[in-house]
Amino acid sequence: MRPIARQAPDTQALEEAAEWLMCLSAGEVSEAEQAGLASWRASSPERERAWQRAERLLGKLGGLPPELALSALERPADPARRAAITHLALLLALAPTGWLGWRQYQQQGWAADYRTTVGERRQLTLADGTRVYLNTDSAIDVRYDAAQRYIHLLRGEILVQSGADNLQRPLRVGTAEGRMQALGTRFTVREREGRTYLAVLEGAVRIEPGAVGEGAFQVVRAGERADFDAHTVGVLQPTDDSPSAWTQGMLLADRMRLDQVLGELSRYHRGVIRCAPQVAGVRVSGAFPVADRQQTLGMLATTYGLSVEQHMGGYWTLVSAR
């Protein structure tokens, strides 16, 4: 006998369940709200199935994720709250794989306040005048409150130019590895493979690794760069304007390995760009337009005597010796 497949609740019931979850996460639940939830659940089998899914997902997540719970505090008609309800309803539809769905959803930055797709760059001006430039395939959350101005880099790379704040709140940028506090400055931050890369162009930035106690920090000044994980900060090294060249659509290379140049170029384009092992270590110098893959590959081929083969309509590119 074939097993009977469980029928998923309809979309409307899932969205209503998501809205109840957000309502209940906003604070202490009143007796009237408890009675309202009970009445809603009893009103139809669809709604009861939707709420059972919500309870299973909540158990797996250990509570409503804070990125969604924050939206419960917004005005009922707020677009951010509406979007959060829609996202949460999608996770309910994915149950019982909602936990994996949430992890992917969080890692990809789909719930981010601001994001860019592959090849897209974007400039923002925040409420205090701080300017944030998002590089390709990047995502950030922005949280301003009475105590601080906080930008969370979820993925990718940003350039921050701090603005003056009448409330004198510190401006901080956080990543999975820790946080940085701007000291009247202009700087770039990149999150990659479990490390954060910081380059300070003006002013200074204080690094505080996430797993180290309060009071342990490293100050990075203009003309310096450093990388860090949750425990330690790497050795300070000199830097130039190359970390911010992407804001002008350029990649600056100074004796950079060819495989590294192609790796950087691939960030801005869908598809695969690879080089043969024999030429991977060729040292490359120059300025290359990141948006024009064909022009950059042509410049590399002409200057360094390379062969460029493209297949599948340009989706697969191989650079090798001529």
Automatic annotation (TrEMBL):
Highest rank taxon of the organism: Bacteria
Annotated Gene3D superfamilies: 2.60.120.1440, 3.55.50.30
FecR protein domain: residues covered: 113-206
Signal peptide: none
Domain FecR N-terminal: 15-57
Short name of any one Pfam family annotated for the protein: DUF4880
InterPro entries: FecR (IPR006860), FecR_N (IPR032623), Ferrdict_sens_TM (IPR012373)
Protein name: FecR domain-containing protein
Organism expressing this protein natively: Pseudomonas farsensis
Origin organism lineage: Bacteria, Pseudomonadati, Pseudomonadota, Gammaproteobacteria, Pseudomonadales
